[in-house]
Design a protein that fits this description.
heterotrimer; A mainly alpha (328); B alpha/beta (328); C alpha/beta (336); A: 328 residues; mainly alpha; 72% helix; flat; C: 336 residues; alpha/beta; eight-stranded mixed β-sheet; four-stranded antiparallel β-sheet; 12 strands; disordered C terminus
């Protein structure tokens, strides 16, 4: 046979790599998933982040099954018991108890529910509102864009924490109010990121091509512009999630967030503050939970950002391979 | 509604200015970019008009203006006998079916998230040109075959294809609705040298098969010579010479055309050494403050007093050969 | 006299998740003092990577796997880091394709030129400024004093390219490597820059390695031509020889498929297929899938660059393609 490939098929299709053999969308998706998992394995930090985040999510979902005690159950007899490895501690209360005899471990486990609920709700609310504003602003442009962006500027300039505290003070603190206030404070960044992406994508030739072949504006937005937002928005959402967890903890710490009998890590840090020198475990474990969550989210976000950038990915891959080779 | 002799496309007095920022004290002076100035030409059915120019010549803007993608400052455009200068909305989108665009960048002009089949099918879908999925698939296969791509390309993503193949996909997309006129904006400039010939041959064959007319925008004079029937040379937003292909290349009248032709390197050392080269001094004028009179006078070796003051009109010096020069 | 620059068996690989791309697969050539050599190839041929390797600019995910760069008789790998830094930049200089991204948009032209002078030649501020003026004059930049205070975006493309050349010449190098110096420029500006390069070569005795894909540019500027394909050299010889009597089928194909502005072609004869995927290059000769005169041997054994008819060719059937009339055009083949 004169050619090593079918006569009508160009050369590089024959000399193909694994990905090219996968035809059809299901196979493409599976191949992409496989690549992602492999990339995750190479980047241990990202893997750690994912493990932490997923672990926390499961912990929040399965809280009632995991927690040894009811987090609100008070027992004045068992107050201020130290963790199990200290003298006086026991496995009944592995991380000790607080000043009202409530089990610290259970409170930490249930506290994850609060943090994740608040985080997810705020991201969902602020995100959807912000993305919508950004989409319209970026695509329609003109006066609407100017007005909306000035609105964003005004709200950013306004001291957000002050506003939050004011509202919470007036309306009265609760989980719902916290969510509302944090959402109100956090939608602007989504609007800006979305608008920026839309503006740059609008200029790409394939969007112009869509308009030239006669697509209406709605189709152009949904089919051609929107899919580009997935990656930057995902990274942003994860980072924002981390920020919200911290913000909620801070508000609860100040007494303006979650109120007892609901559990929150921030709240626990506040109550533990008075016992910092006598019962160090009251502050440490909730505080560590906050830190671990935020770190996990940030590691995940960092990995996501690198995944989105093919140059970074290639460089990292090459570094790891070369390191392996020199090690052997 | 078009007579046998009336051209497919007629452009008269096309002028496109767009805002270019501000200058002067307190930014009071509003700057205008004079991209295209009083351009007139025609294209007949099945004919290729080569539009040649360097940076700032206005050739790309002219192409976009013909497709009604940029607003006209003045001038009129007739397509198939109808005045299309002011149509909009749905009527304009219907017009898109008959006038299409092939882009310069084969990598950026295809949506990376759509399969090749979807990309080629989109014009058919948007204009409701086919009934049912089966017919749609058939049309897509036919289009792919027409541009020399295997039918299984439809289920793959643009990423799997080379630059030359992607350009073929772009051509297939442009031909989906069987347009009468295709504006090709530097269709081979971004391709490898050995692939250019393939795509140029393809375009010629398609012209013969389908009776297409091309507005072939390019800066590569050699390619233009090969594919065009008539050629228009643009400089600083104006047409300086318009003639049949052989007339332009063998009997150029305008000093700029002569300089341009002598600047194009010829892949033959012996010829190259013997050539008399006209190397122009100076830079291409800024479209914001173009020179008065003949815009070429600042670099023209023959410029006289009249050239600096009065703009030379595009007049017919020989049958079918028009020049805009006082000294031609 | 020994050559100014020698490259021996250079190999450069790029490590990517999709496979190892063998960008340069064993390239050997030399440049003598005062010569002007063209390295011709398309994208993916490895010509730019070769230039980067000579200048030591290959960065991850790329790395030099094998081979040697020998400057004035001394291999650069044997020289200490300080000496290498001195050679690359002072005796060896490079000009890149896109002047917009090669110049720092925030700094004035003056700073960018004098920076080189002060670092490499240790000139004082006033001396460096004076020399910068001389350099701008040398490369034909109008109103040089004004230009020194301007920033890159205030200059036109052609002028920016001249500035890049001025920076490259600041330390009076022996060899100037120009990587596609005119590709991003308009035709009339390209002619100016090429004339400038010719002029500089005459006046300064500068040797030139010109990297390009444009055969026309080569024909007017270079004495010798090296044709690269898929990471290897296909043909090497004097420009006159190679253009008049191309030996390698790839060179033949390139010349045949390039339209000329002074000739009317009934039809361009294209090269079938596309350049190969270098993460999985075809066995034997990399060009064989596209070659009209390929034989069984071409599919098995990669040909070696051997002297033949006044130049060097890497082909088992050299000169065979010149006599072959293409029987089908590429697009018909592809469409079947």
């Amino acid at each position: 046979m004169a050619h090593a490939h079918a006569p009508h098929e160009p050369v590089e299709v024959a000399a193909t790599r694994r990905q090219e053999l996968h035809r059809g969308r299901p196979f493409q998706a599976m191949a992409a998933a496989g690549d992602t998992l492999r990339a995750l394995w190479h980047d241990k930090a990202g893997l750690l982040g994912l493990v932490i985040v997923v672990g926390l999510a499961w912990m929040a979902i399965l809280a009632p099954l995991l927690a040894p005690h009811d987090p609100t159950a008070q027992s004045l007899r068992d107050r201020l018991l130290p963790p199990f490895w200290s003298p006086g501690g026991s496995f009944a209360h592995p991380l000790g108890t607080d000043n009202l005899g409530r089990d610290v471990l259970s409170r930490v486990i249930f506290g994850s529910r609060t943090s994740l609920t608040v985080g997810a709700s705020v991201v969902a609310l602020a995100g959807s509102a912000g993305v919508l504003v950004g989409l319209f602003s970026g695509y329609v442009g003109g006066r609407l864009d100017t007005v909306l962006m000035r609105l964003v500027d005004i709200q950013i300039a306004f001291p957000g924490l002050l506003l939050a505290l004011l509202i919470l003070f007036m309306v009265g603190p609760s989980e719902r109010t916290v969510i509302a206030v944090l959402a109100l404070n956090g939608w602007m960044v989504y609007a800006r990121v979305t608008r920026g992406t839309v503006l740059s994508v609008r200029e790409t030739p394939y969007v112009e091509a869509a308009e030239v072949i006669g697509c209406g504006p709605v189709r152009v937005m949904l089919r051609h512009v929107l899919p580009n937002l997935a990656s930057p928005l995902l990274t942003l959402a994860v980072l924002e999630f981390a920020r919200i967890v911290l913000a909620e903890a801070a508000l609860s710490f100040l007494g303006l967030g979650i109120q007892p009998p609901d559990t929150s890590w921030g709240l626990d840090v506040a109550t533990g503050r008075d016992y910092l020198y006598t019962a160090w475990w009251l502050v440490t474990f909730p505080g560590a939970a906050i830190a671990l969550t935020v770190m996990g989210l940030n590691l995940l976000a960092s990995w996501l950002r690198i995944q989105a950038d093919p140059h970074e990915r290639a460089r990292r891959f090459a570094t790891s391979v070369l390191r392996q080779r020199s090690a052997t | 509604m078009r007579g046998a002799t009336e051209p497919l496309l007629r452009v008269e007095g096309l002028t496109v200015n767009y805002p270019g920022g501000r200058a002067g004290w307190l930014g009071r002076e509003r700057l205008l970019v004079h991209a295209v100035d009083d351009v007139s030409f025609t294209i007949s059915q099945g004919e290729t008009l080569g539009l040649v120019g360097e940076t700032g010549s206005g050739k790309t803007t002219t192409g976009r203006a013909v497709l009604r993608r940029v607003p006209l400052t003045s001038g009129r455009i007739w397509f198939d006998g109808h005045d299309i200068t002011e149509i909009g909305g749905r009527e304009l989108r219907r017009l898109r079916a008959r006038m299409q665009l092939v882009f310069q960048d084969p990598y950026a002009s295809l949506n990376p998230r759509m399969t090749v089949g979807d990309i080629v099918a989109e014009p058919l879908v948007v204009h409701h040109a086919v009934q049912g999925r089966h017919e749609l698939r058939e049309r897509v296969r036919e289009l792919l075959r027409l541009v020399g791509l295997p039918p299984d390309a439809a289920s793959r993503y643009p990423m799997a294809f080379s630059g030359g193949q992607r350009q073929r996909i772009g051509i297939a997309r442009a031909l989906a609705l069987r347009p009468d006129l295709v504006v090709a904006d530097e269709p081979v400039s971004a391709l490898d040298v050995s692939i250019r010939a393939q795509v140029v041959n393809l375009m010629q064959d398609l012209q013969e098969q389908l009776g297409l007319a091309y507005l072939f925008i390019a800066h590569d004079l050699a390619v233009v010579r090969h594919i065009s029937h008539r050629v228009a040379i643009m400089y600083a937003g104006r047409i300086v010479e318009l003639a049949g292909r052989d007339d332009i290349y063998e009997r150029p009248l305008h000093p700029y055309t002569r300089a341009l032709l002598s600047a194009v390197p010829i892949p033959d050392p012996a010829t190259q050494r013997e050539r008399r080269r006209v190397v122009l001094r100076g830079e291409i004028p800024s479209p914001i403050r173009p020179p008065a009179g003949c815009r070429f006078h600042t670099r023209c070796p023959l410029a006289e007093a009249r050239c600096r003051v009065e703009r030379p009109p595009l007049v017919e010096r020989h049958p079918g050969h028009r020049v805009a020069c006082w000294l031609a | 006299m020994s050559p100014l620059l020698e490259v021996r068996d250079l190999e450069v690989h790029f490590l990517t998740p999709g496979g190892t791309v063998q960008a340069v697969r064993g390239v050997t050539f030399h440049i003598d003092q005062g010569e002007s050599v063209a390295l011709v190839g398309e994208s993916g041929s490895g010509k730019s990577v070769t230039a980067q390797a000579i200048m030591g600019l290959v960065e991850l995910p790329g790395h030099v796997v094998a081979g040697e760069v020998i400057w004035k008789g001394r291999p650069l790998s044997a020289a200490g880091r300080g000496e290498v830094a001195r050679i690359r930049g002072r005796e060896l200089a490079i000009v890149f394709q896109d002047p917009m991204t090669s110049l720092n948009p925030l700094l004035t032209i003056g700073v960018q030129i004098t920076e080189v002078l002060r670092r490499h030649l240790r000139l004082g501020r006033r001396q460096a400024a004076q020399r910068a003026l001389e350099l701008l004059d040398l490369v034909g930049v109008s109103s040089p004093r004004q230009r020194l205070r301007q920033r890159p975006h205030e200059l036109s493309g052609g002028m920016r390219q001249r500035v890049l050349i001025a920076i490259a010449l600041a330390c009076e190098p022996d060899l100037l490597i120009a990587d596609e110096p005119t590709t991003a420029l308009d035709v009339t500006i390209q002619a100016q820059i090429l004339e400038l390069l010719r002029d500089l070569r005459e006046r300064l005795g500068l040797s030139l390695l010109l990297i390009t894909h444009d055969l026309g540019v080569v024909a007017g500027t270079c004495d010798r031509i090296l044709v690269m394909y898929a990471g290897r050299l296909a043909e090497a010889g004097t420009a006159d020889e190679v253009f008049a009597r191309p030996a390698h089928p790839y060179t033949v194909g390139l010349l045949r498929s390039t339209p000329r502005v002074d000739v009317v072609h009934p039809r361009l004869i294209a090269i079938e297929g596309s350049p190969p995927d270098l993460s999985a290059p075809p066995p034997g000769c990399a060009f064989h899938p596209r070659c009209p005169v390929a034989t069984a041997r071409c599919r098995r054994e990669p040909p070696v660059l051997t002297p033949l008819g006044g130049r060097e060719v890497a082909c088992w059937n050299a000169f065979a393609a010149s006599g072959v009339e293409a029987t089908a055009t590429s697009h018909e083949e592809v469409g079947r």
